[in-house]
């Protein structure tokens, strides 16, 4: 939210019309042929003036007397030194005041500081959107006319590692009606470049908010021991109960879920099950298969779903027998879905909450090709997460039509949703 600061004329005490001042400055810049941004631009000049004025005010407070007034102690002003800082309008050269005994510690532009804080946020934002360190450096050169090394950009992004650790260990809510667990494949160099899964858990809170619980580096073929460790970590961070966990055939995960939360229901991801069905069929039949599958997962009961699936199998599984095996293997984790109210079905069937997140993750990791290690990949994924919610809580948006779903959850899981 923008904030307007009233400017008072020190002589008359009247409020200065800021819009009128801005119009006058723009008119003067146009007459003099001065550009708005870039080296020597109007905004650069204004930034220089504001920073130098603030630094002089800090020096006045430090010494206890105004500029050009007589010194009231041993320490006094001792000229200025030139310094170039990178700001959001480009590189700006400013004159920093000095004092005789060197005790002045400016706050607005600290000693040895070469970038204003807003620049770090720009670097983190660009990195989260998939730009490599080289591309971010080129961006600053093109847009701000400033040279920022790849090493400096890496150091800026490294600052979030401590923040990421704190985020990954933050306390969580006591109960989540639904938790989605999914994987994104990232290329990591481990002796040689290979595909490695990184797992993301997204909870839906009792307020209907999406809450990214954490990100974990895994390995192909992870089993129950790995998953029990991940889920125990989530439980130790305060999650006492989860009603439904939506996942997609990850080895050892269903057993680990029920071990961690005894009352949790394991639900296979319906969208993923349908997509995996398409993998075994010719693309030209996808529309027909989708249409014929719909009566299966919209059936009112398990018996009705079984009957509809047999009708589907009679039509398609002679041609594509692997589809029958896929559904039979997933049936135990599929059928809990059929016991729920339509509002609960809508929440657990829709994977928009995690698919939109995965799309951002994929865009960011694709731009880099591969990562030197797990830590670099985790940092990249966290930067994407951070860009969704800069407060670091990992919460980004409301789930649609949550109130009807909340009522359905409260009735279905009576006494567990408070």
Automatic annotation (TrEMBL):
Q: Which UniProt keywords apply?
A: DNA recombination, DNA-binding, Transposable element, Transposition
The GO terms describing molecular function are: DNA binding; transposase activity
Q: Please name the InterPro entries in this protein's record.
A: Transposase_mutator
- On the tree of life, the source organism's domain of life is Bacteria
One biological process term from GO is: DNA transposition
Q: Does the keyword Nucleus apply?
A: no
Q: What does this protein do?
A: Required for the transposition of the insertion element.
Similarity field: Belongs to the transposase mutator family.
Entries under PANTHER family matching the protein: MUTATOR FAMILY TRANSPOSASE (PTHR33217:SF8), TRANSPOSASE FOR INSERTION SEQUENCE ELEMENT IS1081 (PTHR33217)
Name this protein carries in UniProt: Mutator family transposase
- Classification of source organism: Bacteria, Bacillati, Actinomycetota, Actinomycetes, Propionibacteriales
């Amino acid at each position: 939210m923008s904030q307007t600061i009233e400017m008072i004329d020190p002589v008359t005490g009247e409020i200065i019309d800021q819009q009128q001042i801005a119009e006058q400055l723009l008119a003067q810049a146009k007459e003099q042929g001065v550009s708005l941004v870039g080296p020597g631009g109007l905004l650069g000049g204004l930034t220089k003036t504001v920073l130098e004025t603030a630094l002089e005010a800090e020096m006045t407070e430090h010494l206890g007397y105004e500029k050009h007034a007589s010194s009231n102690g041993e320490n006094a002003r001792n000229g200025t030194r030139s310094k170039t800082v990178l700001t959001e309008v480009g590189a700006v050269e400013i004159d920093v005041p000095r004092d005789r005994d060197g005790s002045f510690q400016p706050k607005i532009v600290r000693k040895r500081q070469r970038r204003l804080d807003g620049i770090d946020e720009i670097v983190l934002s660009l990195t989260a959107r998939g730009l490599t360190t080289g591309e971010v450096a080129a961006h600053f050169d093109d847009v701000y006319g400033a040279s920022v090394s790849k090493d400096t950009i890496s150091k800026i992004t490294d600052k979030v590692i401590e923040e990421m650790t704190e985020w990954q260990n933050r306390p969580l809510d006591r109960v989540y009606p639904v938790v989605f667990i999914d994987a994104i494949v990232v290329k990591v160099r481990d002796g040689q470049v290979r595909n490695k899964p990184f797992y993301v858990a997204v909870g839906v809170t009792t307020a209907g908010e999406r809450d990214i619980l954490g990100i974990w580096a895994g390995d192909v073929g992870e089993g129950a021991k790995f998953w029990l460790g991940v889920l125990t970590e989530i439980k130790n961070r305060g999650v006492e109960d989860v009603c439904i966990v939506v996942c997609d055939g990850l080895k050892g995960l269903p057993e680990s879920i029920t071990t961690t939360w005894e009352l949790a229901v394991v639900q296979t991801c319906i969208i993923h099950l349908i997509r995996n069905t398409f993998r075994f069929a010719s693309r030209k039949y996808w529309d027909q298969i989708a249409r014929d599958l719909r009566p299966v997962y919209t059936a009112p009961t398990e018996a009705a779903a079984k009957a509809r699936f047999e009708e589907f199998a009679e039509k398609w599984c002679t041609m594509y027998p692997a589809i029958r095996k896929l559904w039979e293997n997933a049936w135990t984790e599929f059928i809990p879905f059929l016991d729920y109210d339509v509002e609960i079905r809508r929440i657990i069937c829709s994977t928009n909450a995690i698919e939109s997140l995965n799309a951002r993750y994929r865009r960011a990791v694709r731009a880099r090709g591969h990562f030197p290690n797990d830590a670099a990949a985790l940092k990249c994924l966290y930067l994407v997460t951070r860009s969704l919610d800069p407060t670091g809580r990992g919460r980004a948006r409301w789930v649609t039509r949550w109130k009807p779903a909340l009522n359905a959850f409260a009735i279905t899981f009576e006494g567990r949703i408070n």
